Amino acid sequence: MSDTIIWITGASEGIGASLADNCPYPDARIISLSRRKHPKYETVQIDLTDPASWDVVREHVTKELAAFKGKRALFIQNAYSSDAHGPLRGTDPVVHQKAVLANVAAPLVMGEIFLRAVKPDYEAGLVLMSAGAAVWCLPGLSAYGPGKIALEHWAQIMDREMRDEPAPRPWVVAIRAGGTATGPVLRTAEKAGNMAQANHIRENLKNRLTPDAAAKHIWAALPPPPGISLISFGDEPTDPEYQFDHARMKRVVVPGWRLVYR
User: Fold this and answer.
1) Spatial separation of the C-alpha atoms in residues 85 and 244, rounded to whole Å
2) Which of 5, 124, 150, 175 could disulfide-link to 170, CB 3.0 to 4.6 Å?
3) Which tens digit of pLDDT belongs to each residue from 131-190?
4) Cα–Cα dist 109/225, whole Å
């Protein structure tokens, strides 16, 4: 039995594939969770747009970790759906619904599945792949950016919850890889026409990392320092038009109530 077991959602292309290929643990058992069968790695075929697939992941991860006797168990939630990129009202509602399931709900459920299944007998780490879209307010990414915000907030909550548990405890971190020239990103730039994010991608392709370079940066940053729930390799937006800024959101505070309506 290998000392290290690693699950990667979306390991069939992009950063997910490069994370698998650049894994720093030579004896690792890498399991791809993806729609397509991986040519090199063990695969559990799932579709994160379909909640029935989530139960497949739960059964598989729970069974494998119940028998695991190694030193390290990692889960990398990397997959997302780019099918709904574009203006909301120009997107098919079924496509949008599936993208919301894959990008908002599924990552949190994948994390929950892993954290419930791990034991304190080995190092356990959960990596949630975020993106600059968590802080860049980009039109056309309504089924993508909000999911990254939710993912980062969830990682922070889990990190704080884990602090109350006896050591050794699982670590949880969200990672923004920075601008990377992955297949889905290039396809988005191609099909999104003259939308701002498409133009931005096309204009800055020369400055984007290769997936292999991004994967090496990510592995070098793991495990995260204690108390760190977010690692970002990207720049914050400086143009106010694209900043996601809570301070600029209109809010109403009702005297005598604890709720704040944003």
Assistant:
1) 18
2) 124
3) 887 887 777 788 888 999 999 999 999 999 988 888 889 999 999 887 765 556 555 655
4) 24
CA–chain centroid gap for 114, Å, is 14
If you ran DSSP here, which 8-state letter would residue 83 be given? T
User: Helix or strand or coil: residue 43?
Assistant: strand
| Structural domains of the chain, ranges and CATH numbers in brackets | 4-181+209-261 (3.40.50.720)
Residue 47 has pLDDT above 90, yes or no: yes
Query: What angle (nearest 5°) sits at the alpha carbon of residue 97, between those of residues 94 and 103?
Result: 140
Dihedral (CA of 101, 102, 104, 107) sign:
positive
Mean pLDDT of 16-32: 96
Helix (H) or strand (E) holding 90: none
Tokens of 213: 């370079």
Residue 191, token pair as written in the block: 């099909």
Comparing 84-88, 107-111, 168-172, 227-231, the range with the smallest average pLDDT is: 84-88
Cβ count within 10 A of residue 202: 12
Cβ atoms of 165 and 138 closer than 8 Å: no
Q: Which helix (H) or strand (E) holds 74?
A: strand 72-77
Identity (one letter) of the amino acid at 43? T
Q: Where are the alpha helices (DSSP H) in 118-244?
A: 145-162, 183-191, 196-203, 211-220
Mean pLDDT of 187-216: 64
Q: Which two tokens stand for residue 155?
A: 């990682």
> Which tokens hold the place of 181?
């020239």
Q: Which residue has the higher pLDDT, 120 or 196?
A: 120
Average pLDDT of the chain is: 84
pTM: 0.85
Sequence-distant (6+) residues with CB within 8 A of 56 are: 44, 46
